[in-house]
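Hi F.,

I've been meaning to write this up properly since the lab meeting, where we talked about keeping a consistent format for the predictions we share between groups. The idea is simple: the sequence comes first, exactly as it goes in, then the structure tokens exactly as they come out, then a line or two of notes. No screenshots and no reformatting. I'm using this chain as the first example so we have something concrete to point to.
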Amino acid sequence: MQPHRLASDYRELLPAAALREHVLCLWTQSIQPSQGVYAQRVLPDACVDLVFFQGQPPAVIGPWTESFVAQLAPGTRITGARFYPGKAAAVLGLPAFELANQQADIRDVWNAAARAPFANVGEMPTFRASRAVLETALLRHMRNVPSADSTIGAAIQWIARHPGARVEQLSELVGISCRQMQRRFSAAVGYGPKMFQSVLRFQRLLYFASRNVGERGLAELAADAGYADQSHMTREVQRFAGKSPGDLLPSAGCALKMADFLAPYGDGGSVDSTA
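Output, unedited:
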């Protein structure tokens, strides 16, 4: 997300060290009271977010495969936690595909006991206080969280390092069937490895564009992000954002900039995991 700075103040922060295996970042957003309703376009990022709106029930925002527009009223204050791709299912206790392209009330995800430590996150008087309560609640919740699927975690890293590779290779590298790979990947991430590869490539494009505004042409950005060519990039940007690259890239931000998925990637390698 990259809201207009005059209407919206959006910030990302690293979580406590003990949370970083699962939590990519904590974030806050406030809409200026003097502005009208703010239309926030949210782009696919392969993440699940736990979101606390002041004065409203908390929500879980699932992994989307298309953009959507959130209408935020003047004075809105939000505190959120964004989970790494593939890690939210273990934290929430349900398969990620159940949240695909959905926003769910937290009451439909967790029972009263699980929700209780998070009850006051959205009602604290400052963002600093909200983040402190959220971190404390997450640390308490994580005590009972099972390990995420390590095979899928390794597969995610492999896809990140090989943006142009054929994901069908994953099953052979890991040693499980294509059908099992699809099932386990969807349970962990929300959709299959091919969709994840496309979303991650899109986010890498946003990352490179935000760091090199005006310095690189579209063809060079397409190559850097891992697209076959500029036409491929244009189709994917239209698919995920409903805009052309020229309209989107000057202002859109990358939701995964705090992750290691966007580090330089290599040409080969294996998946280091056990099924």
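Notes:
The first strand starts at residue 8 and ends at 13.
Residues 266-270 have pLDDT under 50 and may be disordered.

If this format works for you, I'll send the rest the same way.

G.
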